Amino acid sequence: MTRAGRVLLHLGLALWVGGACALGLVVAPRLFHTVPSEQAGDLFGEILRRFTYFELSCGGVALLGACLTFAGTRRGGWISWARIVLITAMLLITVGSSFGVHPRVRKLRQESGAEARQKFESLHNTSTRLMQLNILLGVGVLAFSAWSHPRD
Questions:
Q1: Number of folded domains in the chain?
Q2: Dihedral of the CA atoms 140, 145, 148, 152 (nearest 10)?
Q3: Does the residue 63 lie in any domain?
Q4: Cβ density class 33-44: b for 16+ within 10 Å, e for less
Q5: Separation of alpha carbons 45 and 42, rounded Å
Q6: Domain range for 25
Q7: 103 to 46, 98, 108, 119, 120: CA distances (angstroms)
Q8: Is 51 domain-assigned?
Q9: For the chain, what is the mean pLDDT?
């Protein structure tokens, strides 16, 4: 089970982190550079809504892989526990951002006025930082897994 677990772990994380990087580093900058801001915001918001379910699926696959890897080790080990904890944290960040922050951002985009704009900017920055944190955690788990002994 350890080998299958590692495959699921790395596949789930690679697709999740790679997708987030592609959206944040390629899609969003290009979209906001070529399309009027209002339209770009609508389009990217829809992309993020759809990406949420991809993220949650990849996170579930990665967590399953981490659990299988843990179950396949003789003593469990702190490395396996760390993977499970970090992937769970990433999933919680995704859920909080996608179902807590993003709906509020969408609602504030419809409102006018300086106060609504200020709240929008604050929540948008929070959303961006949460995505960056997830990318950082995911890259960390991938790097740590590659570095760690194959029979941890």
A1: 1
A2: 130
A3: yes
A4: eeeeeeebbeeb
A5: 5
A6: 2-147
A7: 11, 7, 9, 13, 11
A8: yes
A9: 90
Mean pLDDT of 6-15: 95
The pair of structure tokens assigned to 14 is 């690679």
Radius of gyration of the chain (CA): 18
Tokens of 57: 């699926």
| Sign of torsion over alpha carbons 105, 19, 67, 82 | negative
In a domain, 152, yes or no: no
How far is Cα 123 from Cα 119, in angstroms, rounded to an integer?
6
87-92 contacts, C-beta under 8 A, 24 or more apart: 87/13, 87/59, 87/62, 87/63, 87/141, 88/63, 89/137, 90/16, 90/59, 90/134, 90/137, 90/138, 91/56, 91/59, 91/60, 91/63
- At which residue do the structure tokens 């997708």 appear? 19
Residues 114-119, mean pLDDT to the nearest whole number: 89
What is the rounded average pLDDT of the residues 15-19? 97
So what's the pLDDT on residue 80?
A: 83
Residues 6, 79 contacting (CB under 8 angstroms): no
